[in-house]
Design brief:
With 240 residues, this protein is mainly α. The chain contains ten helices and no strands. α3 packs antiparallel against α4 and α8 runs antiparallel to α9.
């Protein structure tokens, strides 16, 4: 007989696990975000390095050499080193594997087409899909930020019945739409113009810094709506 603990996760269980691992999940709704929690959401110092260094390597190498092959191969090699370091230090290796897959797919596409700007096409597609998914959740009146916060609070759909909470998670979801739309608005024209160096710079500037800022704004918005609930629960723990 198979171990019941090894059964495949249902969609709701998988979504709940993903929500808890997400950047938003690093601060419980109602808690005050801190610089440490923001750094943790970024994956710590190691996560920041792993996010920034491959793109920075492409930018530096391509700017000085205009040679596509080393410009995309070196970031792949760097991503492989990240995996080795995590294996040696017995750290969670999956984030580095995901990073390697992204860098490798981008490099393979650029080498196949011979166009440096195609190194950034997968990222542009991901941003476009993110906008579509987020907008779809808003149109369906199930904003994704609300679903994530609902899982984190243990009240999966309670926010739907609270106009103040619904308004906050709706605004927060629109903010994330704005983040991905800004990236597309900057990167798509540069991609169409074949400006690989400018694309690399834009991706760095609109990557971790913009994500960190949006995460902080989301935490503050959610805290404003859910903080009173936490305070109320402490004041009124229930009747014995």
């Amino acid at each position: 007989m198979s171990d019941p603990e090894e059964r495949p996760l249902s969609f709701s269980e998988a979504f709940a696990a993903a929500a808890r691992r997400s950047g938003i999940g690093q601060v419980a709704p109602g808690e005050t975000p801190t610089a440490n929690s923001l750094l943790k959401a970024m994956g710590g110092i190691r996560g920041l390095v792993e996010s920034i260094l491959p793109g920075l390597a492409f930018l530096v190498i391509y700017t000085f050499t205009k040679d596509l092959t080393p410009s995309v191969i070196v970031p792949v090699a760097v991503a492989v080193v990240f995996i080795i370091v995590r294996l040696v230090t017995r750290s969670a290796v999956m984030p580095a594997i995901v990073g390697l897959l992204g860098v490798a797919i981008s490099a393979a596409l650029a080498l196949f087409t011979g166009k440096a700007e195609d190194n950034f096409l997968p990222g542009i597609i991901i941003n476009a899909v993110s906008v579509i998914v987020l907008l779809g959740s808003i149109i369906a009146r199930w904003p994704i930020i609300g679903l994530i916060v609902g899982v984190l609070t243990g009240d999966t759909f309670g926010w739907k019945a609270d106009p103040a909470k619904f308004r906050v998670v709706l605004i927060a979801t629109w903010c994330w739409v704005g983040l991905f739309a800004i990236r597309l608005g900057v990167e798509v024209p540069l991609y169409l113009a074949g400006q690989a160096e400018a694309l690399a710079s834009a991706k760095l500037l609109l990557g971790v810094p913009l994500y960190a800022g949006m995460l902080w704004v989301t935490w503050l918005l959610v805290r404003a709506a859910f903080g009173h609930q936490k305070a109320q629960q402490k004041a009124d723990p229930g009747e014995g």
